[in-house]
Specification:
CATH superfamily: Fe-S cluster assembly (FSCA)
Number of strands: 3
Structural class: alpha+beta
CATH class: Alpha Beta
Helix content: 10-25%
Largest sheet: 3 strands, mixed
Distance between the termini: 48 Å
Strand order of the largest sheet: 1-2-3
Order of helices and strands: HEEHEH
CATH topology: GMP Synthetase, Chain A, domain 3
Number of helices: 3
CATH architecture: 2-Layer Sandwich
């Protein structure tokens, strides 16, 4: 594994965000990124392995979301789909609470809110 081929932290963040856009809330026809469930993505390099470890800070549409475990597991599983990504940690937060104002314009169009 050549270090030149390992993406930098910002490139890995972009790769991860592209993959987050492929995960849909099973109850809503919008991906979790455009839905506004992802608040932050940070990537850093593991000094021992030189691979990337990313943390996704996210929320759910409600604290009682029946699909919460499935969505979080799907986010964590992205490490198996992205080369040089060792692990995805999920920090699940409910403050600030999710609201429709967090949705992208695209998501609002899909949901008929515009």
């Amino acid at each position: 594994m050549s270090e030149a081929t390992i993406p930098n932290n910002e490139e890995m963040k972009e790769k991860l965000i592209r993959q987050l856009r492929t995960i849909y809330d099973p109850e809503i026809p919008v991906d979790i990124y455009n839905l506004g469930l992802v608040y932050n993505v940070e990537c850093q390099t593991d000094e021992a392995t030189q691979l990337k470890v990313c943390t996704v800070t996210m929320t759910l549409t409600s604290a009682t979301c029946s699909m919460s475990e499935i969505i979080v597991d799907l986010v964590r599983s992205l490490s198996s789909r992205i080369e040089f990504l060792e692990r995805v940690d999920v920090a699940l937060v409910f403050d600030p609470p999710w609201g429709q104002d967090k949705m992208s314009e695209e998501a609002k169009l899909i949901m008929g809110l515009l």
